[in-house]
Amino acid sequence: MRRPSNLTRHLASAALVALLAAGLGGCQTMSDVTGSIASRSDPTPDDPRRAAEIYGERYRKNPKDVDAAIAYGQGLRLSGQRAQACAVLEQATIANPGNKALLAAYGRALADNGNSQAAFDVLGRAHSPDNPDWRILSVQGTTLDKMNRHDEARRYYASALRLAPDEPSVLSNLGLSYMLTKELPKAEETLRQAYASARADTRIRQNLALVVGLQGRFAEAETIVKADLPADEAAANVAYLRDMLNRKDGPRTASRAAPVVAKDD
Known about the structure:
This protein is mostly helical. Helices cover about 60% and strands about 0% of the residues. It has helices at about 5-15, 50-60, 65-80, 80-95, 100-110, 115-125, 135-145, 150-165, 170-180, 185-195, 200-215, 220-225, 230-245. The longest helix is centred in the C-terminal third of the chain and has 15 residues, at about 230-245. The radius of gyration is 18 Å and the shape is globular. The protein starts with 5 loop residues before the first helix and ends in a 20-residue tail after the last helix.
């Protein structure tokens, strides 16, 4: 049996963990993404479960090892063990009070787990007004969108974009924010700007295709979602997109959109 493409897997995972409470006016959570808002000195295996095993053993030997705790938490989070990731990173922040990289990782884990207010509060301690981190600002924006505080969220995205102009991950999240308030033309314009970047990834393509499809331009949405893919993967992704856009709940298909966190450089 052919394995699903990366985009199909992103769509499926987003469908599970980025649900809106009530149509486009609801809320969103973080979805599975690659990369992290916290830097690490050690490489992480491509398989999140393997990363969790390797760094989990290292972390258990030394719970004060910050790099191990961050990598272990990320491995758990990306393998779907979000509550456990929160627990590990919470203990690590207790063992290393004030460590901003750990606070960033913990806040991200809380956001993934749906603990939006707690995530926002923790992320606020992970950087400071005199030394802001645009990645953290962007994630804070997604937590505010989840709490229906869209105007506030957009101020955070604007601050992130001042630090990282034209950053596609921030533009994508801003586009999703507009989608949540049914401002679909503005959402499309913002997502197209993100998609035009050489650093745009499949999640941004997914989000743009959804916004275009939600406006009734299904053929164009299909063209976007299958661009540059082998024929079999393109067909699978188009079938999934059609299923999402044809659901009886209509605009709730926007809930499958995936907020994007930039990869570390």
